[in-house]
Specification:
The chain is α/β, with parallel strands linked by helices and 331 residues long. The chain has two domains: 133 residues, 3-Layer(aba) Sandwich (Rossmann fold); 185 residues, Dihydrodipicolinate Reductase, domain 2, CATH 3.30.360.10. Helices cover 30% and strands 25% of the residues. A hairpin with a 2-residue loop joins strand 3 and strand 4. Helix 1 crosses helix 8, helix 3 runs parallel beside helix 5 and helix 3 crosses helix 6. 45% of the residues are buried.
């Protein structure tokens, strides 16, 4: 690949830090790189590949001469700066929800629908972290036989709400164990030693925004509007890596060995399914890993041609930064 000029928007956040780590780990060919954030971060220094760089304020002129801008600055900032990115001839790979359901914007998981990158008009959306992790486990099965329905429950780590949320979990756990009252600033409820419905708005049908994202985004990525999905998304007191319990129904009966082989052969997945040792995917093992871990593979006898499984994936990596960098590599 020809070396590219790269910008990281939201460079001082949790995903911004992972962008840098992934770019370096994958030896992405970089000619020049700039680190963008809000005005309050100007003056900070970021070390990348042993060199120190200043954090610059993101402005409408920040993207001139930039080939690819990796965005994790929030939906409002993505919407605000998208016209300037596109006008500069740059491609935005956006990690927010701003453009995911825009019919003119590809929504891409490189292992699943890489061809959709080709029709981008200057913006490519990174799917929701829970959607990515679910589809990484489901798609190898989908290729064997079309999936008719999915029932998924998520166990989502604090990392999904950013670095400050992870710090809140640690502080609350420390205070709770010390017998002190816990402080709630990021989450609406105590996250330490507790779990609660995902902290997003509930719609008229009783689904929260995270659940709606998983449903609609999966239909778009798979180009399958007939796939029926229901989701229940829960916050759990885990620092990093999301977990998901999935039941699905296929059009034809599949063998469990066939399924295990398909998942093992699928790039980005690793089967962890030791029944004898009762060892299966755990967020602790998935944290820091590029691969999604898949196990508890068994028949779901409550569904026709039903399959049940459990998956863990690092929300900050495959659920965010790694997927975005893989999209940049496709470009």
């Amino acid at each position: 690949m020809t070396p590219k000029n790269i910008a990281i928007a939201g460079a001082t956040g949790a995903v911004g830090a992972e962008f840098m780590s992934v770019l370096e780990k994958r030896n992405f060919p970089i000619k020049n790189i700039k680190f963008l954030a809000s005005a309050r971060s100007v003056g900070k220094k970021i070390t990348f590949k042993g060199e120190e760089f200043p954090v610059e304020e993101m402005t409408k002129d920040s993207f001139k001469g930039i080939d690819v801008a990796l965005f994790s600055a929030g939906a409002s900032r993505s919407r605000e700066f998208a016209p300037y990115v596109v006008d500069a001839g740059c491609v935005m790979v956006d990690n927010s929800s701003a453009f995911r359901m825009d019919p003119d914007v590809p929504l891409v998981v490189p292992e699943i629908n890489p061809e959709d990158v080709k029709w981008n008009k200057g913006i490519i959306a990174n799917p929701n972290c829970s959607t990515i992790i679910m589809l990484m486990a489901v798609y190898p099965i989908y290729r064997l036989s079309r999936v008719k329905r999915i029932i998924v429950s998520t166990y989502q780590a604090a990392s999904g709400a950013g670095a400050k949320a992870m710090e809140e979990l640690k502080n609350q756990a420390s205070d709770f164990l010390a017998g002190q009252s816990v402080k709630k600033e990021i989450f609406p409820h105590q996250i330490a030693f507790n779990l609660f419905s995902h902290n997003t708005k509930i719609d008229d049908e009783g689904y929260n925004e995270e659940e709606v994202k998983m449903i609609k985004e999966s239909n778009k990525i798979l180009h399958d509007a007939e796939l029926k999905i229901t989701a229940t998304c829960i916050r759990v007191p885990i620092l990093r890596a999301h977990s998901e319990s999935i039941s699905l129904e296929t059009e034809r009966k599949l063998g469990l060995d066939e399924i295990r082989q398909a998942i093992s052969a699928f790039s980005g997945c690793k089967v962890i399914d030791d029944r004898a040792g009762n060892y299966f995917p755990m967020p602790l093992d998935a944290s820091g890993q590029d691969d999604c871990l898949v196990g508890r593979i068994r028949y779901d006898n409550a569904l026709d041609n039903g399959i049940a499984l459990f998956v863990c994936g690092d929300q900050l990596l495959k659920g965010a930064a790694l997927n975005a960098v893989q999209v940049a590599e496709l470009l």
